[in-house]
Amino acid sequence: MQRSSERSIITLLSDFGSLYPAQMKGAILSRARDAVLVDIAHDVPPQDVRAGAFALMAAARHFPAGTVHLAVVDPGVGTGRLGIVVESGGHTFVGPDNGLLIPAARSLGVPEAWMIDQVFFEGASPTFHGRDVFAPAAAALASGAAPSSFGPRISPKELQMGSAEISEDWMEAEVVYVDGFGNVIINATEIPWDVVILAGRRLMRARTYAEAGPDEPLITIGSHGFAEIAVRGGSAEGLFGLAPGDRILLERGNCSE
Fold first, then answer.
1. Over the stretch 171-226, which tens digit does the pLDDT of each residue have?
2. What angle do helix axes 20-29 and 135-142 make, rounded to 10 degrees?
3. How many other CB atoms are found less than 10 A from the CB of residue 70?
4. Which CATH code is given to the segment(s) 165-252?
5. DSSP helix/strand/coil, 228
6. Architecture of domain 9-154
7. Contact (CB, 8 A) for 247 and 186
8. Whole-prediction pTM value?
């Protein structure tokens, strides 16, 4: 339980770019002036719920219990999709019920979810629930409101990152995120071979980026625990032309290659 002398932490994640997050922050600070606001990311690829879920999952675990996580990647804004509050591992999440919150919540514990009652949507812009519904909800949670006070308990929509399919000589995986360096993160948590080939190019298996030579492609297990394709001093996204959602085939190479 948060002590009264501590300032509440609210994280923010969205696909809104540079303009709209300030409006969400204003809505929060109008209701919880002392809240500490921390941006996770606002450059999630537009409407890419899975990429947003990955970014939230990678970041949320590094915040203390009691943190409120406000996340909005919401292609269904203004439709019949629900808004939800999720509690897990001492953290609280608020946002749309489209799976965005669930991987992060599951990484911290066993999630419990409540629907945000429609009364909270009255007067809200049908195109900006992040500002008019979820930001006020986050402020209320940071100020001590119970998740159950927003509405009835529900089973939230699930979202899975999936897992790579691995055989003796190949691995089929999916790109789940591309970071600001152009590093390509895939839904694999292991690198099964010493030599890996992607699109005819050898990927150096490395522990750090610096182990590769200049402009050399590599594969490593990133700080998030997933396999990551990178280029030292360059962009794996640009080199291989990859984007979130792409399926890729990694092949086992020979040590002599």
1. 999 999 999 999 999 999 999 999 999 999 999 999 999 999 999 999 999 999 99
2. 40
3. 29
4. 2.40.30.90
5. strand
6. 3-Layer(aba) Sandwich (3.40)
7. no
8. 0.91
